[in-house]
Amino acid sequence: MRAMKWMLSCLLMLAPWGPALAAGPSQVKIVETEGSYRLFVDGKPFFIKGGGGSGHLDELAARGGNAVRTWRVDSDPAQMRAFLDNAQRLGLKVAVGIEVGNERHGFNYDDDAAVAAQLARIRGEVEAWKDHPAVLMWVAGNELNLHYTNQKVWNAIGGIADMIHEVDPNHPVMTTLAGFGPPLIEQIKQRAGSLDLIGIQLYGNLGELPEKLRDSHWTGPYVVTEWGPTGHWESPLTRWEAPIEDDASRKAGVLLERYQRYIGGEHRQGLGSFVFLWGQKQERTPTWYGLFLADGESTPSVDAMQFAWTGQWPENRAPSIAPIRVDDRLATSSVVLKPGSPHKAHVRASDREGDALDYRWTLREETTATSIGGDPEHLPDAVEGVIQAAGAGEITLTAPRKPGNYRLFVEVRDGQGHAAYANFPLRVE
């Protein structure tokens, strides 16, 4: 009997998606009623409360999220299957990202053979995963309008949408746009009119969304597929043009305000959103966009999203934090230090529940990255031997001997899996 059970288990594992597929594919529809749009999953209204990223899915579900967005199909079928099965187990739906060639990365949309090969590859990906019950919709390409010139990309997107509709009648198809205006929307209507909706990606200018929709004459449905803190390209700069990042507490307040004003209450065309990033990455800094630290601690922005989605704060919240000050000056003062000179830096942090706080300071060389669209960046090296603790939230910083641009970081942990952070760009000359 034990051997029979073992054999049955193996057969289930070898089946396309194991026992999670018993219910078959989800039936996902966008329904229009007098110019208003609603998303339905298996006949029930579904407003997307999502995170962009493939990690921390347990926490996403626990915090009130109901969906996750990815950027590509995993090349390892076992990994892709495990991800979708885990999402299904947690009650999360997946907007499955499909990688589509970007012109800025060298893809040539005048090359008919390359376009055809891409379409064939995507067909295989859709056919492989279309029947998994966790699939919510297909996201064909990411920010293909970023630094591009060849309008044929939208013909390719239209062809992808047509193919997916032929292969998979159960799930809508979209593409995502890095901002938008009337000319872009007109091209999409003409060349990719079979898209079911569009994905809109805005950060500091999310408040312009209603005006952009009106001016572009986009009256169809949309999802805000990326939004979050104010972007590094739209933030204040030091005099040497280093972007000044908001601290973790300010970001959390900004996220909550933006969600409540422009996303959560928009039910005419908006079908919901995916906050960016439900995870962590290096993009100008290691904390700019991620709602988690590299070792998994959640930040005040995660708490803010829980409140946005559920109306309830967690029982134990992340610490709060204020901006770093160096010699009692803020980063907007464009602080310049002399090589080898000593300076005082401090930060104020507190914990609502009274948990003991652990302060971790690091000085790193400033990034020289100029990448766009979230392309990969290298985490700059830490500078050793320049920080001496002087008390809770206080240090003595010895300016590096090497002239250049640097950034001082602090992470404040509460010992309960939560943290806050801040950083300060400075220059040595």
Automatic annotation (TrEMBL):
It comes from Stenotrophomonas panacihumi. InterPro entries: GH, Glyco_hydro_2_cat, Ig-like_fold. Residues 101-175 form the Glycoside hydrolase family 2 catalytic domain. One of its GO terms (biological process) is carbohydrate metabolic process. One of its GO terms (molecular function) is hydrolase activity, hydrolyzing O-glycosyl compounds. This is Glycoside hydrolase family 2 catalytic domain-containing protein. Residues 1-22 form the signal peptide. Pfam families: Glyco_hydro_2_C. Keywords: Signal.
